[in-house]
Design goal:
Number of helices: 3
Radius of gyration: 22 Å
Oligomer: single chain
Structural class: mainly beta
Number of strands: 36
Strand order of the largest sheet: 5-4-3-2-32
Distance between the termini: 43 Å
Length: 541
């Protein structure tokens, strides 16, 4: 949902004035919490607010309202740095958290932009398996690979060509043809100067083309989008690979703007078939993707943002016919592990919130249940130009009932700026996830974990390469129960949060940790573990 609101009358001043007044009343009501969820004994996580010294200056006429971000350990010291993509004619930012603040890394360690365009999407990957994490970044000029050489980076443009009308936004990686080299699914959006409207659903010839690039083994690529069954012409923000069937191969989940969620089943050979899910035939605005085992059954599930209750109906139905429904709600697709999903957004009490962008799942209070952080506010929307009408961003913790309770008003995690994604990592090294709202206009806002929390944690480090994509970690607790944590790649929106898995143990310790990799191998460490880090490297596999 970008830039121009084609279907809104904007000529007659009295009509426009009435519309603004109407939208103001609409959005003021929009900021209420729509559910009454009993927190019970659920701990509300505490945070200290820290502003990131990086002033973004989005210019609507020059670029899509997006920017990339990532948590990346550039020097291998076990603590990640914060990468924020620069906007038009602005250099990228790279920051290290030190003594309670974010400090710029000199010269961005070589993570510089190749041109004036906005750095649109970022993804971390040790592409050459040398133990040093590298990064892929999309720009209007193309896709760049930044290779880590001991804390500084060298860059090269990859030979990937998007459709001539398309800008590549986010990147999802997997070894689609199982040859040991990274392949890329690049989500595409129509170029900024060719956008005709924000709410075009039914024009088959309109939109950007997402592409599947297969690595030839030397980081040159062949476009096999059509051959492998994932061709479509539709504006797309985000996609991710994951084994939603539990059959040992990586499937593909795609979030279309002004469209649907697509769930592509891998047949085991790297060919994909679009299978049904609860959102298949219901027009929506899915944008960001959250990734977690929401019900702790050992299968990966997915959260999706949407336009929610914010814009009035006349603004968002666009060219939908009268017989076509519109789903405005946030969604939770819960997989049964056999290719079937149920939609649990209402049951989890997340469905009826407002306009959302990126989102991330983390166990913020370390109680063993997955929580949710959502970025909000649309930089070009008239109803968010007025500060008092902007949304707070949402932080929701999962209670023992499985319902989500909004706690941002309680712990001060509020961001009324234009956030595109909530990036998570343990920047202060205390075993708890910190949150950075990546703002595309103004300074990004960080919320660093603070206060006393009696719950224990276990950090689990897997190799940040292709071998870990799709892995599921099972943690056995003292009482014999299990926690399941998927290895997450490319969660949020054009962002890549920390790959370090943080499991909340509550009052217990762990007695065994098993990593089940997508290739069928596994690795186990037994003992008594609490408030520490376990590392699974190549030798453990």
């Amino acid at each position: 949902m970008l830039r121009k609101l084609k279907y809104i009358p904007m000529v007659i001043v009295p009509v426009m004035g009435s519309m603004v007044i109407g939208m103001s009343a609409y959005t003021l009501n929009d900021r209420r919490v729509p559910y009454d969820v009993d927190l019970g004994d659920t701990i509300v996580p505490e945070f200290d607010h820290v502003e990131v010294p990086f002033l973004q200056s989005h210019k609507d006429a020059t670029s899509l309202p997006m920017t990339g971000s990532a948590a990346i350990d550039i020097d291998g010291d076990g603590t990640e740095e914060l990468f924020i993509g620069g906007s038009f004619q602005q250099e990228n930012g790279l920051f290290r958290f030190k003594n309670g603040e974010f400090v710029a890394v000199a010269d961005q360690a070589g993570l510089n932009k190749p041109g004036d365009g906005t750095a649109l999407g970022a993804l971390v990957l040790d592409h050459n398996k040398d133990g040093q994490v590298d990064m892929l970044v999309t720009h209007p000029e193309g896709i760049w690979l930044y290779t880590n050489n001991g804390g500084t980076f060298t860059s090269e443009q990859l030979d990937t060509q998007m459709n001539e009308n398309t800008t590549g936004l986010s990147i999802a990686v997997a070894d689609v043809n199982t040859d040991g080299h990274f392949d890329m699914f690049v989500s595409g959006y129509i170029q900024n100067d060719k956008i005709e409207g924000l709410n075009i659903f039914n024009r088959d010839e309109y939109g950007g083309t997402s592409e599947l690039f297969i690595n030839n083994g030397d980081n040159t690529f062949t476009n096999e989008t059509r051959e492998r069954g994932v061709y479509f012409l539709h504006n797309t923000f985000q996609a991710t690979f994951g084994d939603f069937e539990g059959d040992g191969d990586l499937d593909l989940i795609v979030a279309h703007d002004t469209g649907n969620i697509r769930t592509y089943e891998n047949d085991g050979t790297g060919h994909f078939t679009n299978i049904e899910n609860p959102n298949t035939d219901i027009p929506s605005y899915p944008m960001g993707i959250g990734i977690a085992d929401l019900n702790n059954d050992g299968v990966t599930d997915y959260n999706f943002s949407n336009i929610g209750s914010t814009p009035p109906t006349f603004m968002v139905r666009g060219d939908l016919r009268d017989d076509q429904p519109l789903n405005r709600k946030w969604m939770a697709l819960v997989s049964d592990g056999n290719g079937t999903f149920s939609e649990e957004g209402e049951a989890m009490k997340i469905a009826d919130y407002e306009f959302g962008w990126g989102l991330s799942n983390e166990d913020l209070n370390l109680d063993g249940r997955e929580d949710l952080i959502v970025s909000e506010n649309f930089v070009t929307a008239p109803f968010h130009k007025v500060p008092v009408l902007r949304l707070p961003g949402r932080m929701l913790v999962q209670t023992a009932s499985g319902e989500m309770a909004e706690v941002g008003a309680l712990n001060g995690v509020v961001n009324r700026q234009y956030s595109i994604a909530p990036l998570t990592a343990d920047f202060n090294g205390d075993g708890r996830s910190d949150v950075v709202h990546i703002n595309i206009a103004g300074n990004s806002q960080a919320f660093i974990s603070a206060g006393d929390n009696p719950n224990g944690f276990l950090k689990i480090q897997l190799p940040e390469n292709l071998d870990s994509i799709g892995a599921m970690v099972e943690i056995t607790l003292q009482d014999g129960s299990s926690l399941f944590k998927p290895y997450v790649s490319g969660e949020g929106l054009l962002s890549d949060s920390s790959r370090m898995i943080i499991a909340g143990l509550g009052a217990q310790s762990a007695t065994s940790v098993t990593v089940n990799f997508i290739d069928g191998t596994s690795a186990t460490q037994d003992g008594v573990f609490r408030d520490e880090t376990l590392t699974f490297g190549d030798s453990a596999q």
